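Example: AB hydrolase-1 domain-containing protein.
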Amino acid sequence: SAAPATAAARAGYSAAAALRPPLVRRLGRPRVRATPSPLALLHTGVTLTLAGTGDDGQPPPEVVPPSVMDSAVSFLYEGTKSTAIIVGGLASVAIILLYTYQDNLLYFPDAGGQIPKSTRDNPRGFQNPGQRGLPYEDYYVDVPGENVRLHSWLLLQPEPSDKVTLIYFHGNAGNIGFRLDNVQAMYEVLGINIMIMDYRGYGDSTGSPSEAGIKRDAEACLDTLRADDRIDPGKIGVFGRSLGGSVALYLAAARPTQVLTLTLTLNLTLALALTLTPTR
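Written out as structure tokens, the predicted fold is:
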């Protein structure tokens, strides 16, 4: 009769289905039979319609047990949570490393070994101004409260107290010797006194570069010049190129009554010149 045949078909189908993976057992493309809500998918199981034959021309439905579904959801959740923890941990490590080594990423005294660090190792003509016939002296600045000594060159005009004195803050990478082309042109064409200094950790200056440290370097240079009786303290200006532009801008803002002029060259194509009127 039809009933025994149907029962046998069901039994054979169930036996075959039992050999398949428990989460998704299918002979053909599954379709989700009506379920009340997404919540029911998690707590009552998922009803799948499988290809085959039965009493109504369809195979009997199989329901994925709630325990299996809960295990799958739990696995996915834990996996996602673990991934988030790992990504968050790596991001935290990256931030800590960037913060710790930010100065190494910002300042390049020798451009990674590509150029000499000390002026003594520069090519001839860039070791000191004297090699270009310019009068100069090695001028040292001690930063108050620190074991840091800055090396600079001071080029004085005849009758230096009658002239403007310019503090030259150079750009990133390299020492003051590589700025001698600019220094020579300023000295000869403008007829001014020039002090060009190497930041801490650059050239023959001691210490290690940092933003806060370079700011203190700038103020120490200004104070040293103002105390030099050969220099008119009311005629001191600052010049900054690239990185030095930020340093010069800082010094002019921090000491507005002590800086006569401010000139910035921000990059090779943009030049900004400002004159600050002291408030005395």
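Confidence is low (pLDDT under 50) at residues 19-55, 97-105, 267-280.
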